[in-house]
Structure formats: C-alpha cells, structure tokens
Amino acid sequence: MVPGLLPGLVDSTLVAIGSPSPAALPGVRTDAAVEVTDLRKAYGGGPTVLDGLSFRAERGRVTALLGPNGAGKTTTVGICEGLRRPDSGTVRVLGLDPVADAARLRPRVGVMLQDGGLPSGVGALEALRHLAGLHTHPLNVDALAERLGLTSFARTRVRRLSGGQRQRLATACALVGRPELVFLDEPSAGLDPQARLAVWDVVREVRAAGVAVVLTTHLMEEAERLADEVVVVDHGRVVATGSPDALTRGPASLTFRSRPALDTRSLARALPVGAEVAEAEPGRYLVSGIEVDPRVVATVTNWCASHDVLAEGVGPVRRTLEDVFLDLTGRTLR
Ligand SMILES: Nc1ncnc2c1ncn2[C@@H]1O[C@H](COP(=O)(O)OP(=O)(O)OP(=O)(O)O)[C@@H](O)[C@H]1O
Predict the structure, then answer these.
(1) Domain range for residue 113?
(2) Are 163 and 300 within one domain?
(3) ABC transporter domain: which residues (predicted)?
(4) Rounded average pLDDT over 126-135
(5) Which of 39, 55, 75, 84 to mutate to test the pocket of ligand 1 (most atoms within 8 A of CB)?
(6) pLDDT at 12 over 80
C-alpha cells in the first residue's frame, strides 16, 4: 500500500466500508458473500453453457474466476448480478436472491458499468460523481479518482475515453457506492502496467476492509498476485479450485539453459527410469517425470560436464498458474 495515497480514502472511505470481516478472523466461519450451487443454463435452448457450476466467494477475500473464452464466466457473474436467470440451480448473494431481492442488493453490491450504463456525453469525473450521488455513503470521489488515475482524463467525455480509461472508470463506478461485494469483470484488461498496479492496490485495500471481491480475468499474473481463491471454469463447470499456492504446488521439474539441440535422449538415459527430458524452447531444457532431488541435479550437472556442455541455472522450477491452467483446460483454441 502506498502510504501517501491512503489518507484520502481511508479517513472516511474504503477502510470504513465495513468492520473487518468476521470471515477474516481465524476459526470464524460465516455465510459466503456468494454461494452458487449447481447452476445450469443453455441460452434459448442452444448448447449447454453452464453445466452444474458451483462455487463460493467469501467476504474479505478475492475470488478469481479463470477460464478459456466462452467457458461461462460472464454468464455466471451475470446470474449473480441478477441480470440473467439460470435454468436451474441456486444463487445466494449476501444471503439474498439476486433477482427477487434486487432492490435490496443494489446498494450493497458493486458492478462494473459498461458502455450503456453511464451517461456518455458527460466528463468521466462528472459521471462518477453522478453515480456517487445515488448512494447514501459513497466513497470520497476525488480520492478514488486520484487512486485510479482518473484525474488525467477527468473532463474527457465518457464516449471518447480510451479502452483502458473506460476500464478504470468502470472499476471506480463499481467501488464508489462502498459495496460489501464487488464484481469486477477483467479489471486489468487493456490497462498499462502502472494502472494495473494501481487497480490491484485498490482491490487489496477494499479486501482488507472486508469486502468480497469476485473478478474474472485472463491474466494469470493477476490471479496469482491478487486472488486468495482461484476458481477454474471450463465448459460451464468448475474444474479446479484453491489458492494459487495450492494449485501450483506439486512435483517440481528441473530446468536449465544451454546451447540448443542437446542430445536429450542421452541425458534421459543417464537419469532414473521415468525421466523425460524436453527442449521446451531453443536452449531451455525441462526434466520431468521423476522427483527432483540433489542426486538428479548432480546427474544433470555431471552429464553436462562429460559432454562438454555449459549449463546455466540448473535447478527445480515450480509450475506456474498458467501451466496448471493449460493442463486443466488444454491447448485447443476456443
Ligand atoms: N446472450 C447470449 N445468447 C446466446 N449465447 C450466449 C449469450 N451470452 C453468452 N452466450 C454464449 O455462452 C457461452 C459462454 O459465454 P460467456 O460470455 O459466459 O463466457 P466467458 O467465459 O465469459 O467468455 P470470455 O472469456 O470470452 O469472456 C459462449 O458460448 C457464448 O457464445
């Protein structure tokens, strides 16, 4: 957190959104902010889009929905926001029904308003002020605008904003009403690195205040760095769920760099049975299929020495979230 930026928001705003979430206290279990059970949906009798999807999102935590294009993330979030109806299954949002209790949920849930949701002929900051005026206890608009870097395009009309500027305004709109739960749809899409870091900082701050954040993203780095819980969705089902750490834990591989086109079969023969050696990209080698222990590292180093090969960075490498995601969802384009 950047201390200099905090006072404007913290004094009267973000941290005051709620008292620290009971869910964040050890040993205390509360109702989930979002609880989705066995959702099924097919648009207009077409192919199945949601096929028994279930997940929970807790208060004071960031839950990231990851999945290939068309996996059903936006449909799921739309159902949670009360904008779409499932064919079957149940959804509880802050303990309420998103359609039947829409009026009660509206002031408590933040959503990213896209093009149609904002007056397009007014300046960005004016649009945010307008929205803030609809809430009883809005955040400090100037502080929020400063934090998300909206001030540089404060007077630009909404319809003339660039993609990244529009995205930042939409994030501000989702947060300005001081929600207990916020849905962020690809909040970093199209953002430059500075803006992305600023958005992540603000998201961390609202989480610390006990807000439940549910976001969709295609950025593995965003999920890895921001999410407490990752929900991987594919073909309308949850195929994995867990913290980034838990999902990427598992057998490490061994990697090293050297000149391209080494005799990988010869190296594999020197290693214990089951070892596979691949040249993942020219000059980068990956040993997998066996447990990486000090003897394996020594065998690779000795093989390199006896073949006059200079190897750099010989050591275990942990799977990334992207590796896990591709293993779970495959490499076929959707
Ligand atoms: N209004 C609609 N009418 C008919 N089909 C739809 C509608 N909205 C979405 N779909 C279809 O439902 C499937 C899931 O779409 P959805 O937008 O939920 O996926 P997503 O995971 O959010 O994808 P992306 O990552 O590309 O945003 C897709 O095949 C899409 O074509």
Answers:
(1) 3-244
(2) no
(3) 34-260
(4) 93
(5) 75
(6) no
**Within-domain flag for 328:** no
pTM: 0.82
Specify whether 231 is located in the same domain as 258.
Answer: no
Mean pLDDT of 186-215: 94
313 plus 181 within the same structural domain = no
Looking at the structure, do residues 130 and 260 belong to the same domain, yes or no? no
Q: Which distant-in-sequence residues (6+ apart) come within 8 Å of 188 by Cβ?
A: 167, 196, 199, 200, 217, 219, 222
Domain membership of residue 305 (yes or no) is yes
- By most ligand atoms within 8 Å of CB, the mutation choice from 48, 55, 73, 231 for ligand 1 is 73
CATH number of the domain within which 153 lies = 3.40.50.300
pLDDT, tens only, 62-108? 999 999 999 999 999 999 999 999 999 999 999 999 999 999 999 99
| Residue nearest to ligand 1 atom 28, measured at CA | 70
Q: Interface pTM (ipTM) of the complex?
A: 0.98
- Distance in Å, CA 73 to ligand 1 centroid: 8
Residue 133 reports pLDDT greater than 80: yes
| Domain match, 29 and 87 both | yes
Residues lining ligand 1, Cβ inside 6 A: 43, 49, 67, 69-75
**Are 68 and 10 in a shared domain?**
yes
One domain, residues 265 and 239: no
